[in-house]
Amino acid sequence: MNYDPIKYSLGKVFNNSPILRKLFYALLNLLLLRAWYIRRTFKQWARTAPANARVLDAGAGYGQYVYFMSQFSSTWRITGVDMKTEQIADCNQFFKKIGKSAQVQFVEGDLTQFTAAEMQDFILCVDVMEHIENDTQVFRNFYQSLTNGGVLLISTPSDKGGSDVHEHGEESFVGEHVRDGYNIHDIQEKLAEAGFSHISAQYSYGTLGALAWKLSMKFPILMLNCTKLLFVVLPLYYCIVFPFCLLFNYIDVRSTHKQGTGLIVQAIK
């Protein structure tokens, strides 16, 4: 199943005004479990971050993480990189409307070829690496773009059911993925080969987290792929499942998982 058309349709609905877009960001932060892990880890880094920190969101998408990170300090300079020209223009327009264009910029770039013009203190990469075949080159580019002591934070599916693939031969739920998920040891080895040290990885999306993902993302997307008319049913559907998703996400992010369908990986240069 192709995920991008659904994301594009949702984006069009919420891009009509800055208020709607901020509401969209807030909903994504609550529904997407990976956002809970990212926000927690980033807050820990931000406590000791340089006053003039430079931050890169590699594969920025809608810009929700750029918006979140921009709220910590007006002296930070944050760059979002994405391959989609329309997405870049849309994000730059939004951040200009809310008065953050001096602090935030979005640029078009292919991560297999992109290195930052200025050294970065923190690089965030959320649900991007599973879309890129030449991942080792991207890891090398991240390493080259970081200052000494700089931090790379990656969220990506694992090979323990990521992309909703549980058995050999099953098809990925997301058609745009070039790999179903990373082995926890393989991704650490690739980052070490790129030059990173102090690499740590943990599973996310345990049993309850995986269930929350099905309720909040998989089932609604399957419905919308049948017919866009089901957009009118979504508010009622989310009214029912939303409290359960919040509870499951809360428990998952505060638990240690022996296995999970997601990975949170942190590496230091």
CATH superfamily: Vaccinia Virus protein VP39
Return the average pLDDT rounded to an integer: 89
The succession of helices and strands, N to C, reads HHHEHEHEEHEHEHHE
Overall CATH class: Alpha Beta
Helical fraction equals 40-55%
How many runs of DSSP E, i.e. beta strands? 7
Uncertain stretches: none
Question: Would you identify the CATH architecture?
Answer: 3-Layer(aba) Sandwich
Question: Which percent range describes the beta-strand content?
Answer: 15-25%
Using the alpha-carbon principal axes, give the shape: globular
Look at the helices and sheets and give the structural class: alpha/beta
Specify the biggest β-sheet: 7 strands, mixed
Radius of gyration: 18 Å
Count of helix runs: 9
CATH topology label: Rossmann fold
Strand order of the largest sheet: 3-2-1-4-5-7-6
Count of spatially separate domains: 1
